[in-house]
Amino acid sequence: MIELRDVHKSFERKGQSIQALKGVSLRAEKGDIYGVIGYSGAGKSTLIRLVNYLERPTSGQVFVDGEPLDQYSPSELRQVKKRIGMIFQHFNLLESKTVFDNIAIPLVLLKKGKEEIRERVTELLKFTGLSDKAGSYPKELSGGQKQRVGIARALASNPSILLCDEATSALDPQTTSSILELLKRINEEYNITIMIITHEMGVIQQICNKVAVMEQGLIIEQGNVLEVFGNPRHATTQSFVQTVIHNSVPQSVIHTLKAESGRRLFRLKFVGGAASEPVINNLIRNHEVNVNILFANMTEIQNTTLGTMILQMNGDNGTIDQAASYLLSQGVEITEVDKV
Ligand SMILES: Nc1ncnc2c1ncn2[C@@H]1O[C@H](COP(=O)(O)OP(=O)(O)OP(=O)(O)O)[C@@H](O)[C@H]1O
Question: Are 163 and 113 in contact, with CB atoms under 8 Å apart?
Fold first, then answer.
């Protein structure tokens, strides 16, 4: 569990105060994969550095597994930090050490015995799919393999929390996907809480269950990924969501609409069950309306389908109202719009 309560962080530079965080509160429960997204300079790195106490808050508190970090003595803090693993955009591997020795670093620092280290590292090599790379050096690995080493090293001391700082930003889309799958497996098999900071909404879409959107040192929107993706309120969130859910209506359709004014337009949103039901089919069969599907898009988030559709309905007003009520009764969110 990770919690930030009204955290402020300022940096003093050349007599100037830079407010990187201006009162941030969030809570990631045990087992969450919590994504923090924002543009450059929003404060994401500062936030994640506060969680492992590389930085201290100017005010406010950071809790890890229920305990406020500022209450610990330095030796207690070292113990807490062992429960937090971290992976980085540029992997931060030691070039002069083999894959095996890189993964072993935290265990050597914890003064574990040789046999225990061998067993644990062998297990991690297997888990991350690197068994045949134990004796290789980082320069002999691809970016994805390097990140797997970073992940294995972060897991070596059995953390309860894994922090990921733009961990896939240097990777191509396919490698990104395989690393995200690995993170998901870590979360599921080891029940590790994961916090990911990223500027890519695709990362949030693929594995996070919760998300916070940051801008200028503040969280402007947060919640379940499905809720935030389905109903982004803030303009910045909307522009992030649009990078993965392409629900803007093609220009050719907009032209058609102008030519057919006088018909009623509806924007529909399907979430989960409603999306897979033959709702539109039943609408057409049971109501005296002409239905024209102008645009439809389905996206899979958290194993749930999120769909957007724009319908034009033509018929008498009362019948169209009935058709709209039918859609509502089927769990479809429906809004009448003047234009798309
Ligand atoms: N050590 C520091 N000293 C001075 N200013 C800092 C320091 N660390 C961060 N800042 C400032 O705090 C603000 C937030 O930076 P931060 O790195 O947390 O943003 P970010 O969202 O992670 O951006 P990016 O994705 O570019 O890394 C920026 O204005 C940055 O210049």
Answer: no
Residues with CB under 6 A from ligand 1: 11, 13, 18, 20, 38, 40-46, 199
Domain ranges of the chain: 2-242, 251-337
Is 36 within 8 Å of 62 (Cβ atoms)? no
Q: Which amino acid is at 222?
A: Q
Superfamily of domain 2-242: P-loop containing nucleotide triphosphate hydrolases (3.40.50.300)
Write the DSSP symbol of residue 200.
-
Look at residues 67, 56, 71, 77 and name the one whose alpha carbon lies nearest to residue 7.
56
CB atoms closer than 10 angstroms to residue 199: 15
**Which atom of ligand 1 has the smallest separation from the CA of 55?**
1
The CA distance from 121 to 151, in Å, is 12
What residue ranges of the chain have pLDDT lower than 50?
A: none
- ipTM reported for the complex, 2 dp: 0.95
CATH assignment, 251-337: 3.30.70.260
Q: Going by DSSP bridges, is the β-strand pair 16-28/2-13 parallel, antiparallel, or unpaired?
A: antiparallel
Residues 6+ apart with CB under 8 A from 281: none
Q: Cα torsion for 90, 95, 100, 102, to the nearest 10°?
A: -60
Q: Which residue among 12, 22, 45, 216 is best mutated to probe the pocket of ligand 1, counting the most ligand atoms within 8 A of its Cβ? A: 45
pLDDT in tens, 281-316: 888 888 888 888 888 888 888 778 888 888 888 888
CB 306 within 8 A of CB 230: yes
